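Summary of Year 1 activities. Much of the first year was spent building the evaluation harness for sequence design. The harness presents a backbone, in tokenized form, and records the residue chosen at every position. We chose the following record to illustrate the format because it has been used consistently in internal testing since the harness was completed.
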């Protein structure tokens, strides 16, 4: 186990001077990503709807030595998103790494004919509209500095269909298209856009049937993939990562 940990470890300080903004950063995948990027030296800004959970995560990160800003908000609200980016850049500096991680499953699971318009709107707003809003708020300063990393945390549900996944899959397939177009729009400005598509992850993500924990990914697996992306050499970029557990469910 020690040899594996050494193999997967990266030297601290590699991201010194960087500012990472992670949406949905209070728990699960978002918290793991914030922790990993902070370990590598980045200052981190995290946001989520749950103020209490966000406060605890911010305290944990600070206790571990991270420079952290936290802000409770709704990432589907354009005004709140703009305030988040402005406050982050005032307190920490320009955002150089954006991780669009915020997402929901429920109420997106179930046969489409049993779902409501409100179900559709909630999932699409959180999983797709928020990516548009946060990216749009961060991109101008990245363009001006001609550098930046934008990473969208999607799902293999953005590439595969399954019974009862209509609304959720629609949001992730939409994200697939948005990410690809953004990559083409922004690569000329030195901004790299990457889509990360994990399989099932052992988190509190609602709406899915619990699986054998030995046959699913951990939040740290996804965070490790993100760290590899941001440490990629300057002449290339990883456009997409598909992440699966070694053991088949």
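For this record, the design step produced the sequence shown next.
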């Amino acid at each position: 186990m020690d040899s594996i940990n050494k193999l997967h470890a990266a030297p601290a300080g590699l991201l010194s001077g960087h500012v990472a903004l992670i949406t949905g950063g209070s728990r699960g995948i978002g918290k793991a990503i914030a922790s990993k990027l902070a370990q590598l030296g980045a200052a981190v800004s995290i946001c989520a709807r749950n103020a209490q959970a966000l406060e605890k995560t911010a305290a944990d990160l600070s206790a571990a030595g991270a420079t952290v800003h936290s802000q409770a908000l709704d990432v589907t609200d354009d005004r709140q998103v703009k305030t988040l980016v402005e406050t982050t850049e005032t307190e920490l500096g320009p955002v150089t790494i954006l991780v669009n991680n915020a997402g929901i499953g429920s109420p997106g699971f179930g046969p489409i004919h049993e779902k409501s318009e409100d179900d559709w709107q909630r999932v699409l707003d959180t999983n797709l509209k928020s990516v548009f809003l946060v990216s749009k708020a961060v991109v101008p300063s990245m363009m001006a500095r001609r550098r930046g990393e934008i990473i969208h945390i999607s799902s293999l549900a953005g590439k595969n269909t399954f019974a009862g996944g209509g609304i959720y899959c629609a949001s992730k397939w939409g994200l697939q298209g948005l990410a690809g177009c953004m990559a083409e729009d922004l690569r000329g400005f030195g901004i790299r856009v990457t889509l990360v598509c994990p399989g099932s992850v052992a988190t509190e993500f609602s709406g899915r049937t619990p699986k054998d924990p030995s046959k699913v990914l951990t939040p740290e697996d996804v965070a490790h993939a993100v760290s590899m992306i941001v440490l990629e050499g300057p002449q290339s970029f990883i456009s997409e990562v598909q992440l699966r557990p070694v053991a088949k469910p």
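The chain has one domain: 18-243. Quantitative recovery figures across the full test set are reported in Table 2.
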